[in-house]
Design brief:
It contains two helices and ten strands. The chain is of the alpha+beta class.
Length: 181
Amino acid sequence: MFCIKCGAECEDFEEGGILRQKCPHCGYIHYKNPYPCVAVLVINDQGQVLLGKRGEKSIYPGKWCLPCGYIEYDETYFEAAIRETKEETGITSPPDGIINVVSNMFDNGVHSLVVVMISYYHGSEPLKPGDDIIDAGWFDVDDLPPLAFSADVFSIGKYEKMLAEGGITALTLEGNSVYGH
């Protein structure tokens, strides 16, 4: 690996029991961190969950998932949630709150940290799958197709449990784009 700051070849070194890369020239240390992601549990007026079927070139093709994806640089998690839902399902459904934060460790070596939000959809836009999603649909929570991600299974289960216990507990979205010092 070459240093992203000065271009010198990095060297292996151990820090806290973790093998890392460090630039001998400028001292830059490359930390391999989880990828920041969002997922949106979109619920319609009938209480159904919106899911997308993953395409052939996606991880876990043919399985279903919540609208989800990576947070882009210079994008808030709130903006990413709106964008990913629109790209993958064709509808606009801004999040109403955060219901979960979960770590995913995938078979392909990717490690992500996912902010899972809930969104109540009251519109009538037709579903239009896109991006890496080949089909989209509304499903009853007790009749879900095979899900790609254990985080989705957990989040939908958490939603069901909150409903059974009398209500949804979600964090507010205040402070989703705090800038400065």
